[in-house]
Write a structure and sequence with these properties.
The structure is a homodimer of 480-residue chains.
Chain A lengths: L5 H4 L8 H11 L3 E3 L6 E3 L1 H20 L3 E2 L5 E3 H4 L3 H7 L4 E6 L2 E9 L4 H11 L8 E10 L13 E11 L2 H21 L6 E4 L11 E8 L5 E11 L1 H6 L2 E3 L5 E3 L1 E8 L1 H10 L16 E5 L7 H13 L4 E3 L6 H10 L4 E5 L1 H5 L2 E6 L5 E5 L3 H26 L1 E3 L3 H10 L3 E6 L3 H11 L2 E6 L20 E6 L3
Parallel strand pairs in A: 3-7, 15-16, 15-17, 20-21
Antiparallel strand pairs in A: 1-2, 4-6, 5-6, 7-8, 8-14, 9-10, 9-22, 10-11, 11-14, 12-13, 17-18, 18-19, 21-23, 22-23
Subcellular location (chains A, B): Cytoplasm
Function (chains A, B): Catalyzes the attachment of proline to tRNA(Pro) in a two-step reaction: proline is first activated by ATP to form Pro-AMP and then transferred to the acceptor end of tRNA(Pro).
Keywords (chains A, B): Aminoacyl-tRNA synthetase, ATP-binding, Cytoplasm, Ligase, Nucleotide-binding, Protein biosynthesis
Amino acid sequence: MSKDKKFVESITSRDVDFPQWYTDICLRAELTDYSSVKGCMILLPGGFAIWENIQKGLDKAFKATGHQNVAMPMFIPESLLQKEKEHVEGFAPEVAWVTHGGANELEEKLAVRPTSEVLFCELYSKIVRSYRDLPKKYNQWVSVVRWEKTTRPFLRTREFYWQEGHTVHETQSDAMEETLLMLDVYTKFLEDYLAIPVIRGEKTAKEKFAGAEKTYTMEAQMYDGKALQAGTSHYFGTGFAEAFNIQYSDRNNELQYAHQTSWGVSTRLIGGLIMVHSDDSGLVLPPRIAPNQLVVIPIAQHKEGVLDKAYELKEQLENDFSVIIDDTDKSPGWKFSEYEMKGIPLRIEIGPRDIENNVCVIVRRDTREKITVDLNNLNSEVTRLLNEIQENLYNTAKERLESRIYDVTSYDEFKNVADNKPGFMRAMWCGKTECEEAIKEETTVTSRCIPFENEQVKLSDKCIYCKEAAETMLIWGKAY
Amino acid sequence: MSKDKKFVESITSRDVDFPQWYTDICLRAELTDYSSVKGCMILLPGGFAIWENIQKGLDKAFKATGHQNVAMPMFIPESLLQKEKEHVEGFAPEVAWVTHGGANELEEKLAVRPTSEVLFCELYSKIVRSYRDLPKKYNQWVSVVRWEKTTRPFLRTREFYWQEGHTVHETQSDAMEETLLMLDVYTKFLEDYLAIPVIRGEKTAKEKFAGAEKTYTMEAQMYDGKALQAGTSHYFGTGFAEAFNIQYSDRNNELQYAHQTSWGVSTRLIGGLIMVHSDDSGLVLPPRIAPNQLVVIPIAQHKEGVLDKAYELKEQLENDFSVIIDDTDKSPGWKFSEYEMKGIPLRIEIGPRDIENNVCVIVRRDTREKITVDLNNLNSEVTRLLNEIQENLYNTAKERLESRIYDVTSYDEFKNVADNKPGFMRAMWCGKTECEEAIKEETTVTSRCIPFENEQVKLSDKCIYCKEAAETMLIWGKAY
């Protein structure tokens, strides 16, 4: 097999140069390509098909929890964007502006949406009158634009695809319930479909969304130990409602401001899939999100009966799985490398001797294990193996995450771990933004969240930076 | 029932003021709403759900014919847009331009895509090398922007949702086959799902797409007799390939320019659904495209057992159909009007006496017919009725279309029909753009297509305008 492996030999090893390995996979697995618009990527069929599966899974969960899809304009008039002060300060520096329509200069310039809170607020202020109109739970699947200076495929691009949910509620507790519900929906999807374990918690004041009262986050750990903010869910209180006059008559016929939320995940999740599961042979995809779960590769396909049998297997497998076949005249070795690069979870090899013995050889993408399978049990064996891969990928990522969270109780220790150990840290914090900023500036490590799961943890009494009384524990990490 | 019908009484009659009736339905059926960005609409849940069903149906057909989805950037650098001369002349006058990113002026201004030919061409020029790479058949579902002066919901808006397929092929005949295949895919979908019959044919040189060699179209006739261009499919020849240098080594190892196509349909189809099927009580939707096919309305729901029975019916129907229930305390009459306005194909009424008799009353949205149905046969009766509605809507539209195509053999007759009879005309034409332009200027009637179905039709020897020798027959109509 090795002599055909030109393809694979030329990608960088993830242990040698992780960023280069990442870029190699993005391009060589044909997920994405550069465009002539600096900082904007093309999603190729392989990349877009993953996004379609993410959409399908999440959209179903959104609808099951009572959300409806809409489409808001991609433009925001400058005056509308400026209505909520914190929000515009957060986003204005990275807005792309449309100033001309055809040959004419516009009377008011238009932002290409960086996010759509203000558009939803404007709509809600028109259609919400009474508590009977509440809640409204809308979502949209669109692309947004943020004029970032440095970009990386999937992780940070000037245009990116995402979904943004925007909801409006009668009471604070309804809105807070929604905020946390959507964090749960995301978490379940990440763990069950993407096989990505996360640490959940609340963002600090410094890190929360511009205009939010509270931001909740899922933080995933990549193979190189860095954090990826995989999705966020925000509780807005009545801040936007006051700025946009979203008022309703309550059950006592008194006017009240409505409570709002928003929440989103993006194509960044594809970057997460790559950086959590993939290896030096290319992409590794969890079976539940893989656009193609199986590839059938005929061996010695010029021999009588081989191609026919291969097509027969494909047809039989198609009843239960997504299957492709490669019947081109390329060598089996080339094909093996090609579909390893593309992350197809199982490869099914069928040759003359296999046919004689009524078996085929199945090779797992995750462990490279070869299994000879009786063709009478093929579909049930494939089901079993796909489930095993899904579980194995999750467990591997989970163990790695858990083994790379370090408790530190002094700033020296913090800096030492930051310099030498990939992973996250847990450390006590006084609650002051100044300490958080100083740590970031001195170490490039940022606060990821105040984790839900560890609310009671008390590693020491003191903030590791200022040594004043600690208020809470924080998770820290270098981040994408 | 009539005393509750405030809701319906306030929409304009389609025979009194068709444009106002149309706008009334768009807003009152809650399909769309105006935004603060002039000319851009909001797709509300009711409108977006129809678009989702259109997407679902067409996307399946695209994939079944070997197409793959991608996502290209929403921006096009000015220099890239200018590479194909006819194309840029066609689109530049209505392009929205991004000139600033954050606080900085861009070095090169960026068009917000009005269509994406040039982006696909640039990609294809990179990834197509050999005949082995062909065909590439990509599609994307996105919104595009054209800075139109006058706009109408769904029919002409500055931003609109659509799909655009872009393919590249080895030979002219492969590309032409694709062009016509996609026209067939569209036609089948329009007829089978949207219940909209169309006339298909080729656009004249004046009306074809900017940069295309041939444009094929589906023309639908609205209730007011006007034409709606419902979708187009273009054969580009090698024009774009030459401008963008899309060359491949052919089977003799010689360099050749590739042949291309593009094809698209948009949210304009929702406008077509309204203007073909709907009536003075509101929206009428064909069951195969309706987001909700059934609404269950309990009658005297305060009486014991009614609500329970209504929920039971809903649950039973959900196995086969998309069903909603309205158990609010609004009056049944209000509910009847509401769901007629929203175009739900069948309403199921269940009250105490019905329960006693083990029946329910089903009311068809299209004919208003009331049918008493034995609850033991409910699902099969509903299936039958939905099929009947689907067929009835198609047949009604088909008969109307066929009865309103007028053959004219002189320009006086042409003008007389144009002024007095809603519908299309068939008339002979010399093939010169000047005649076509003069007719448009003098009558506002435009050429719709040289129809496939009538290639052999010869109404006379002469062009109705210049009276010189006729080259072909054309379909004419006033258009949206």
